[in-house]
Amino acid sequence: MRNFRHVGRICFTRFVTLPWKSNLPSIQDPNWRILGKNVVDVAQSCDTGEAAFNECCLARDQLESIVQSIGYDMNVFIFGGLVTLKIFEVGGDVDFVGVSDIEPGTQEASEIVKRVARELRHLGLKAWCLPKARVPVVKVDRISKCFPGSPFNSLSCDGVFQFIRQLNNTEAEEFSNYLKENYGAKEVEWSSTFNFATARFPTTSSLMYALPHLKSQNENILASLPVDTRNGPEIYRFPFDFCLSSTGLRNSYLLGEALSKYPFSRHLLLTLKKWGRACGTINSIDGLLASYALTVMLVHFLALVGIIPIVSTENNACGPYLLEASPKYQPLAYSTDGDMAQVGFLLASFLEYFGKIFNYTQNVVCTSDMNLSKKSMGWNELSNTNGKPPFFEFAIKDPYGIDNIGRNLDLESTLFVQEAHAFGLECLLENFNDPNASLHILTQKPPIPKRSTYVSRKKGIDSDFPATNQFEARNALSKMRFHERKKTIEKFGIKAAKNAENQHAASRVTKDILGWIRNDVNR
Asked: Considering the entire predicted model, what is its pTM?
C-alpha cells in the first residue's frame, strides 16, 4: 500500500517500504537529507545544458542526411542516455540507430556499417566500425575542439568542394547556380584554377545535407568537406555510436518513461553511474556491466520498493517509427523540489539491495516481474545445457525481449559487482555523520574489490577461432583503444563542465555590475 504526502512544488512523494530487513539508520535521521541534497548537486553537475542537448539532436539530422546520401532509405533515431535521462551527460556520448521498414540481418548490417564508416571518414570524421560485433556498430570520435553548447565561428557553415579536374567558366557558373537553387547556398567562391569551390550555407544542417549528397550525385567532385571541421557542424562536436538494431531504441523510451514516474530517479542514476565508473563496475569491455544494465537495475529496484509502478511492456508495444526521432530536453529537479531524505535513503538502499540482499544465484533482475527466477528462464546451471558461457551468473532480463543483459559476467565478475555494492554501502555508513565526505569518496575514490585480470577467451571454443595468444593480443589492443577513447571523453567532459561553471560565474558578475550601475544612475 502506498502513502502520499505533499512536499515543495512536486505534487507528492512516496514513503519507502523496503521488502527486507534493513540495517540502515532510520529515514528520519537528518543526515539522509544532507546526503540526498548532495546527490542532487552531483547530478546537476552532470548536465551539459539544453544548448548542448539540442546540438545532439541537430547532429542526428546531419547523420541522417549522410546515411540517406549513400542510398539507404532509413531514418536515424537517438536512443540511450539522451532518451532515458533527457539530458546530455557530461563526458557522455550519443547513441544513434538507423531504422528502416525491414530491419537488416547481421550480415547486411555489417556491410551497412562499413559503408557508413567509410563515408564518415570521407567527411573528415574519425570513424571505425565493428562489423563482427554481436550488434554491428560504427564508433566515431569527437573532432571539434569546441565545447558542446558553445557558439559557432564564422566558418561553421562553410563547405569546400574539390573537383577531379579544372572546370570552365560555364561549368562553374552552372554548379554555383545549382548550389544556390537546390541547396540554399548563400555565396559560392572559386579558386583561381577552378579546382575548388567554397560555399556558405545558411545553417550547419544544410551544409551537412549538401556535402554528401552533392558528392554522390556529381562524379566530378573528388572530395567535399566543411572548411573548418574543428569548429564545424554539430556532428563533429560529439563522440557517437551508430547501429541498426532498434531494440535499444524501444528499451530506452520504455525505461525513460519508467524513470519519469519519480522526479529524482535520474539523479540517482547519474550518481550511481558516476560511482560505477569510479569503482569499475561499469566496464563492459572487461566483462562487467554496461551503463544500460545499471539503468535496468535501478528501475527494478525502484519498482520493488514501490517508488514507481512495475513496468508493463504491453502498454508500450509500438514500432520504432511511432517513437520520436529526437527526445525533448527536460532539466533535472532541484533539491528544493522534493524530499531529500528519501533520495539519500534510496541511494543507500540500492547499494544494500545489490550488495547484501539480491540473490545472484537464483533471481533475475527484471522490470516487469519482481520474483522472476533463473530457473523459469532456463538460465541456471542445471537447466542451461547449451553451455551459454558462463551459465548466466548474473541475470538481467531485457525489458522487451528474453536476452540477458548481464550475459558477459562470469562468476568472478558477478562477485566483483556484488562486493562493489557492499563496499559502497560501507563507505556511506562509515562516513554517515559527514554526508558531504561520504558521497565525495563514493563518487571519486570508492573502495574497489580485488579482481584478477579478466580473461575474455574461455576454454572449449571452436578451433576455427584464432589461437588463444592471438585472440588475447587482439583483445588487449581493443581494450587499450576503448579505454583511451573513454579517457578522452571523460577529460573533455570535465573541461566542458568547468567551462560552463566559468561562464555562469562570469554571467553572475556581469549582472551584479550592471545592477550596481543602474542603482548609481537611479540615485
From this structure: 0.83
